[in-house]
Amino acid sequence: MNFQQLEYIIAVDKYRNFGKAAVNTFVTQPTLSAMIQKLEDELGIQIFDRKQFPIVPTAEGEQIIEHAKTVLQAAARMRAYAKEIKGEITGDLRLGIIPTLAPYLLPLFLKPFAELHHQLKIFIKEMVTEDIISQIKSGDLDIGLLVTPLDDKQLKEYPLFYEEFYAYAAHSEKLGDKKYILPKDINIDRLWLLEEGHCFRNQIFNLCELKRDNIGMNNLHYEAGSIETLINLVDKYEGITIVPHFATLNLTPDQKKNIRAFAEQPVRQISLVVNHTYPRIRILKHLEEAIKKSIPLHANSLSKNVVQI
């Protein structure tokens, strides 16, 4: 058994055709077929059902292919880790980031980080928390930028900063001239929320002590997919929503007049998250330093008048 054989079965599984798999692995079809047959003989398992068209893996073959992916990922990481030991930052870095953070944080640190590590290929996916966690565990992602703590023993967290929440309210909301508001001041019948699946939505439920039903703008019920949509809904249809600090940086002067702070400022902790066995600590530390340099100093610590949710 060798890495080439594992690459071949993964290619056949991807293209469901021996000819296409051979072309994309730069080998002749007879060679690819012979190498896969040799692997099947060695394992005593038929990996592909060649009677089907397109070709499909057998039930046992699917498990072998998944193990092959894990082995090749581990091998690639070992090569990259060996180069890091010698002071080289190369290879691939696959980063997952939640949608309520991506549009605001990435522009702050990504360009200087990429320029500093020009030999590193950076792949970024914007995903909800549950999917990022799943892909970190499977090895499809290296690092996640997530809200923590997650309380998962398979993961290791590297806290970066705390981000404040603010209310964004239309002038028609009955908040008076209050400089600071309380969660109980929010009319939940006029609260705009993100759609299911966003951890930010759950944090708002915790902040306002909401139940999962009977929430919406009177007869209008809409769950947005982004913070920008929530802000636009308040601007056009009134009501109120909750926004994180970085989202407020892009507001116009008129929009900033709609921002209200809380008497006890709610915050979320943002961390880098990796599998507990992730070996590339040097690149992790470099990424941590790059992000911390890009954010306000006050975001690195909790003060007495804030509460983490």
Characterization of the model:
By secondary structure, the chain is an alpha/beta fold. It has three domains: 3-82, Winged helix-like DNA-binding domain superfamily/Winged helix DNA-binding domain (Arc Repressor Mutant, subunit A, Orthogonal Bundle); 89-161 and 269-308, 3-Layer(aba) Sandwich (D-Maltodextrin-Binding Protein, domain 2); 163-267, Periplasmic binding protein-like II (D-Maltodextrin-Binding Protein, domain 2, 3-Layer(aba) Sandwich), CATH 3.40.190.10. Helices cover 42% and strands 22% of the residues. It contains eleven helices and 13 strands. It has helices at residues 3-15, 18-24, 29-43, 59-85, 102-116, 129-138, 199-208, 227-237, 245-248, 253-256, 281-294; strands at residues 48-49, 56-57, 91-97, 120-126, 143-148, 155-169, 180-181, 193-194, 223-224, 240-244, 259-262, 265-275, 306-308. The strands form three sheets. Strands 3, 4, 5, 6, 7, 10, 11, 12 and 13 form a nine-stranded mixed beta sheet that branches. Strand 3, helix 5 (102-116) and strand 4 (120-126) form a beta-alpha-beta unit. Helix 1 (3-15) packs across helix 2 and helix 1 crosses helix 4 (59-85). The longest helix has 27 residues, at 59-85. The chain is elongated and about 80 Å long. 30% of the residues are buried.
List the helices and strands and how they pair.
Blueprint: H1 3-15, H2 18-24, H3 29-43, E1 48-49, E2 56-57, H4 59-85, E3 91-97, H5 102-116, E4 120-126, H6 129-138, E5 143-148, E6 155-169, E7 180-181, E8 193-194, H7 199-208, E9 223-224, H8 227-237, E10 240-244, H9 245-248, H10 253-256, E11 259-262, E12 265-275, H11 281-294, E13 306-308
Parallel strand pairs: 3-4, 3-5, 7-11, 8-9, 12-13
Antiparallel strand pairs: 1-2, 5-12, 6-10, 6-11, 6-12
